[in-house]
Every structure is written in C-alpha cells, then in structure tokens.
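REQUEST
  id: r-88c1
  op: predict_structure
  target: Signal recognition particle 14 kDa protein
  payload:
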Amino acid sequence: MVLLQYNEFLTQVTILAQKVRNESAFTLTFKQYDGIDKPTPREGRPQHPEPAENYCLIRMKAKNKKLSTVVKKSDITKVMESYGKIMKANMDGLKKVKRVKNKSKALQG
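RESPONSE
  id: r-88c1
  status: 200
  body:
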C-alpha cells in the first residue's frame, strides 16, 4: 500500500476513478488514526503516550491498486471539500431507484 500526501492522494483518486468508471468500482474508507503503528504493550510494560493530535486515515482500493493517506485534523475540511467535488464529477452512472407510492402496492409485489 502506498502512503501519499493528501494532495497527491486526491489527484490519484481522480485518475483512478476515471479509469475504473466503466469497468469496475472503487472503495474509499475513512478511519480514525492516532499515529501509533505498534501493537499495544503487554501488562506491566509502559503504555503508549496519548497522541497530541488525531489524524484521519483514508484508504482507496480499486481492482489491484491500493492508496492511502494520513490527514491532520486541521486539514480534514479541505480534503473533504475536494473529495466531494471529485465524487460529484465521477458519479454520473448511478441507477435510479424505483419508488412505490402506496404500501398496499408494495405488499402485492
């Protein structure tokens, strides 16, 4: 998995989203990240210090390509605005949902 700066990550997300538009799908996951990469210590050992700042880990997976980035809490608004623009530009192939007007019609089939 490749760890990128968030500016590079967003450009790669745009490129990959356009590549897989007709062929397949991609997934993005957001996860809280405290900056500690090591497992928790056993009992009797000193614990990890509390992080000074929380981060957000963002991962993208498309076919066999994996990307990730770590974003500071202060930069998350910029990243989410850019992410929203990318998604609006690339979500043109969504299927329309059929809605049923009455519950009785829905029960009939």
